[in-house]
Amino acid sequence: MQRTGLIIGPEYTMDLILDVLRSMVDYELAVVMSIENGSTLKVRKAKGILYKPELDDFELSLDFRKDLKKIINNRETYLFKEDEKHIDTYSEILDLPDGHSCLVSPLYIQDTPIGVLTLDHRSCSMFDATLVKSINTLSGLLSVNLAQYHTNKILYEQNKNLVNERNNLLQDVNTSLKNVIGESERWKEVVNNIRLVAGRDTPVLLQGETGTGKEVVARAVHNLSLRAQRPFIAINCSTLTDSLMESELFGHEKGAFTGAINKKPGRFELAHSGTLFLDEIGELPLNLQPKLLRVIQEGEFERVGGIKTIKTDVRIITATNTDLLEAVKKKSFREDLFYRLNVFPVYLPPLRERGDDVVLLARYFLGDIKKKYGIINLDFSRESIEYLKSSKWPGNVRELQNTVERAVLLCGDEKINVSHLQSSVEEAMTGQERAGAKDFIPLRLDVVIRDHIERTLE
């Protein structure tokens, strides 16, 4: 199974939601506006046959539009009656007839207004009360999307300067990326994403097959961040039982359970002011997910067996080699937690999609192994390099490292030949066939949105 496409951002998914909306109602203009500085509405997306480029830069002050401000404060979708007099929001750009169909839906995240959705059609009675219910559902999705859109806009437009400033202060940026090895276009995308997101505290979700280097990338994000001099704490969510996992993450008080002879700080306390990396997040027990969600949202928790609330400030990076969307469908992973973690997804391609990176990595690992064993004169033969290039590499970076070390132990001379690599590669291919391994498919936001819309409207 091949990867179906690149991971997409909130601007695309906003467009997708409006497409879904158009399949439900024949609007001529749909506009999503965000609330800026508490009193200004600014267009973020406009779509429909009435769209004009001037709408892209349109904004208005709520101080002069008390009617819109009232609708936003009421938190209910408002459908204007055919004979109801009102100010046309886009009258400076569009000349709509009296009595045209018009609807305004406030967009909220919890109790905070973040924007509005407006729908317009030149004909009368195009929208009705039945539509309002569906709009309320889609408004919730648009609210999440608009919040992500705002975050990513800041990330892409403002954070570039912040990242560059941070990197310029480092004596050697390459030191932070020394283990993030590769020159293929696919891998350059990963490196660019690392540089882009590192300077913010935005949650990062690393997606990819086992062995693609997720912890290496997580450390690189940390090392390039403003938290680089603070702790980097990692934990694998699949390695412990439910009760032990809770204790590892949040700590426990003395006497909290049998064997708890001393108070123990959890990983969130150890990572305070730094970065916490949660590997295999899809394996986190369902009963612990609300507690994790609370820490992400509120920055506080209690130790196991404790009543004192502890504040923590950590940057969260998570990783998965499984389909979290499928886990959400099966209700083994909370949807609200998924959205919190999936703010900035980064897909790590398998080695077989990275071209000649396999040679760069093999040489890198050989250099490390030579130092480890005190070997001076040892290199790959020309034939072994061609073999690595031409093989459809069955494993990933971790398997390549093991293969190179095994080849070093087998060769016993100054050259690593094809035969020294062949057995490991063929074993890996056989193992992959036995396991029926499939390429990892990253979570695409358009799939997430469509699935959520379908399940919500059922």
Task: Please sum up the structure shown.
This protein is an alpha/beta fold and 458 residues long. The chain contains 16 helices and 15 strands. The longest helix is centred in the N-terminal third of the chain and has 41 residues, at 129-169.
Question: Any overview of this molecule?
Answer:
- There is one protein chain.
- By secondary structure, the protein is an alpha/beta fold.
- It has 16 helices and 15 strands.
- The strands form four sheets. Strands 3-2-1-6-5-4 form a six-stranded antiparallel β-sheet. Strands 8-9-12-7-13 form a five-stranded parallel β-sheet. Strands 10-11 form a two-stranded antiparallel ribbon.
- It starts with 9 loop residues before the first helix and ends with a helix.
Radius of gyration: 27 Å
Percent range of helical residues: 40-55%
Major β-sheet, in short?
6 strands, antiparallel
Q: Can you count the helices?
A: 16
- Estimate the mean pLDDT confidence: 83
Q: Which strand-content bin applies to the residues? A: 15-25%
Task: Give the oligomeric state.
Answer: single chain
Number of strands: 15
CATH topology category name of the largest domain: Rossmann fold
Query: What's the architecture of the largest domain, going by CATH?
Result: 3-Layer(aba) Sandwich
The stretches of 5 or more residues where confidence is low (pLDDT under 50) are 1-7, 168-172, 433-441
Given the C-alpha coordinates, what overall shape results? globular
Count of discrete structural domains = 3
* Structural class determined from secondary elements: alpha/beta
**Ends: how far apart?**
30 Å
CATH class of the largest domain: Alpha Beta
Strand order of the largest sheet: 3-2-1-6-5-4
The CATH superfamily of the largest domain is P-loop containing nucleotide triphosphate hydrolases
